[in-house]
Each structure stands twice: as structure tokens, then as C-alpha cells.
Amino acid sequence: MKKTLVSMITVLLLFSGLPQKSYAMSDAQAEAIQALLDDASRISGVPGLSVVILADEKEYYYSSGYADLKKGIPASENTLYELASVSKAFTGIGILLLEEQGLLSMTDSIHDYLPWLTLKYQGKPVDMQSLTLNNFLHHTSGLTNNKHAQLIPQGNTPDMLQKTVEVLVDADLSFPPGKQYTYGTINYDVLGLVIEQVSGQSYESFMSEQVFQPLGLNQTFVYKEDSMATGQLAQGYRSSFLKTTPYNAPDYSGNKPAGYIISSTKDMARWMGIQMGIVKDIPDIFHAAIQKSHQGDRSVLAVDTMYYAAGWMVNTDQTIIEHSGENPNFRTQVVLLPNEQTAICLLANGANINTSMVLKIKDIVDGNLSQTYKISSAQLMDILLSIATITCCLLTVLFFVLGFRRRKLNKKQPITKKRKIASFILILVTAALSITGFALEWSIILVWETYSILTALISVTLLTASLAWLVYSGRYSRPLKYTLPLST
Questions:
Q1: H or E element at residue 286
Q2: Which CATH superfamily is domain 8-374 in?
Q3: How many CB atoms lie within 10 A of CB 485?
Q4: CA 386 from centroid of its chain's CA atoms
Q5: Alpha helix (H) residue ranges in 351-451
Q6: Confidence tier at 402 by pLDDT (50, 70, 90)
Q7: Cβ pair 178, 128 in contact under 8 A
Q8: Which of 227, 269, 465, 472 can bridge 52 by disulfide, Cβ–Cβ 3.0-4.6 Å?
Q9: Which position has the higher pLDDT, 328 or 418?
């Protein structure tokens, strides 16, 4: 569901224009990659990582840590991970396959398939006849993460895809359709429902029978129950308040087309090989669909020099094809470098991992063995918020104690005007923080983000309240004076 554009500029600078190379992984390179993965797992706290490198038509698998800590199941190339937004490339192929079969055209109006779907822009109805399937494929529909991702409902009933798209009825778009590219995960849920309408099958059945099976992706699933039956599904984890714990996130099965397909690095190696034309034992009809899926929409401006294609971000000359993904439990990254016939996929069962480590893996492949792991922005935020929470709690206790002590020892001290103003301002800040806290979508935040956001907000609110009390009690008005009674 949630999408973070990870290190695209860095990828561009490092990879664009590089000559084609020939790779033969040495023992030293293998050891460096394994050490990097081990460090990443240890430092990030993410229990399990799996990586596959496709180079010169050879597959190299590496894993670190555990698919399930409690059960002691190690991560491997057969471990199944939720792909998060890397799922979109599969949905993209699914709908382009229908176009190749002559069952739809990407220039068709969305009204032709979902006539009940109505949208608005700035309160006025949008001409749905002019909104095409391409708009949803390329994130130019006006549906964006900032405005519409929170609308995605929880649930795992068979009709959740329908319900997920229905919440968009009369939704107000972020911009006029076709005017710009801004990522919105729910666009691909709309495409998933179109797949159902056109194929006459459920999205899950269509993907399993018409995409995964013909492509030989035997470890790729849309039904979580099927993946669990293999015994290979990784437990998801999250890190909050400096601690990593198992986390069974709520079901968003209506968001499967955008973020909940499940696969392994074993299948992702084949999938990447298919994308780059290395794997050829697939039905001919897929070749044209794959080529189309790499064509970015250049009718709108690029974002950080990257255009959006069909579940992929691509640069101008298609020398970089990549996508990252994040959902509450998992983090993923795929980078394809067609000119070098090289591809890297990273799958992790925790959101704390820094997926830009794929660039460091590429450096090792290129012979630069000295690579170190750096913590992710998500982990850094949790560390800072956790420290802030602890600090604020300690100061809150101190300020309240000092305030009560001051009042007890000097009850008759007059309240000056300056103290009244200062305490009033602090009370207003406390009230503003409280209102902000109540106004935030905690049902979404606490699923997708670290719990330390909540603890930090609460602790800061209590701190300002304690400081208001301390000022009001006179602690900062003048030094506390002790006098001895005069002898008589």
C-alpha cells in the first residue's frame, strides 16, 4: 500500500551509461555480500533478509536471519515475503495481457468498465468518459497516497476489492486527471477490479491461472492461505520503541493488486529474468505485454528523472527499471539494469531495513568490496522519537515535582503578569498538541508507522503541561529563599 521512492537519483547516477560488464562472483564478493546482509539484519533489527542477484544469466542467492524467529526458521531463497508495492508490476502485466488478448484497450474510458465510479475535482464532477485506464496505470488519475490511501478499508472477505474501489465514489482528486504523475497505490486496486470485470474471474484466480502459472512462477501467490500452506511464509515484524516484535498487520485484501502479492527470491529471479528477456520459456503473448510495461508515460513530467510505466519506474532510455515497496510488515526493492543484464531483488520481513543497500550490493558485484550498512530513515525516526519520549517523561516528572514543591514552600508568592502570560502560552501549546493528537488518523498511523510517534506526542504534551505548571507555580520567577525566624 504504502510506497516510498527509495534512492532513485542515486540509482540513476550510479547506473546510467555504464558499459556492459561480465560478472563471475568470487568467494570474496560472496563473503562481502553475506557480511553486508548480516550487518543489515543485526543493525536494523529486521529478522530476515533474502537477496537474489541475476548476473550474466546466473542466479546468486543470499539470505540472513530468520523467516520466523520464534520457530527458528531461517530465511532462504524459498522464504515467502509479501512484495508490497513490487506487486504492482504483476498487476500491470495482468491488465496489459488483457489488452494483448483484445479484451480491452488501455485508452478505454474507466466508465466503460466501472460506470458507477464517479470522481470530483475541487468539488466538481469529473468527466469519467475522459479518464482512461492509462491514467490509473501511470498514476495520473489524481488519486494519490496523501489524499486517498487512508480510505482503503480493512477486511479479507471475497468482495473487498469491490469495497475498496467503492470508497472512491465521489472522492475529490488531488489534481485534474492527466496533468501530472503522483503516486497513489489505490490506482492499481482500480485496475484489479477492471481485471475482474473483463475476465469474469476474481482477481486472485485470474492472476494465478493466467499470469503466474503460464510464467512458471510456482512460488508466487495472491491467496495468503496458499502461501501459509507451504510452511515458507515469513512472519512479519515491526520495530517500535527500539524493539522488534512480531506483528500481524490488519488485512487489506482489497489492496492486493497494489501491495499484497507474495513471492520468494527464487521466483523473483525468474520474474526478473522474464523482464530482461533472459528467461524465454514463456507464452509468446507475454513478450509484447512486458515490453509495454517498461514504457514510461512521458505525457507528464518525470519525478526525479523517472517516469512511471506499468508497475515500474523507468528512466528515459530504460537503462534503469526499478520499484520499491513497503507495507506494515515487509520492505522490498527490485532494480533491473537491462544493458548490463543484471538485476537485484531484496526482500525483508520488517520495514526498518534500508533498501538502498541494493546499491551497495551492486558495488560489491562491481568489485568494490568495502561496503557498510547505514540505518534507514524509519529506524532513525524510531530512535529519535524513542529518545525524545524518554527525555520528555523524565523532565515531566522533574517539573511536576519541582512545581508542587515550590507551591508547598511558597504558597503566598504573588503570581506575576509575566508568569501568567508564560503559563497561558504553554497551556495553549498543550491544548494544541492535544487537539492535534485527537485529529490524527491513529488507526492508520499505528498500522503503518512506529508506535514511538504516539509515545513521543503524548510525552511532549505532558512536558508542556508540566512546564506550564512549573512556571505558574513560580519556579522561574526568582530564586527560592529560605529565612530563619527572628529570635525573640
A1: helix 285-293
A2: DD-peptidase/beta-lactamase superfamily (3.40.710.10)
A3: 5
A4: 21
A5: 357-365, 377-409, 417-439, 442-448
A6: confident
A7: no
A8: 269
A9: 328
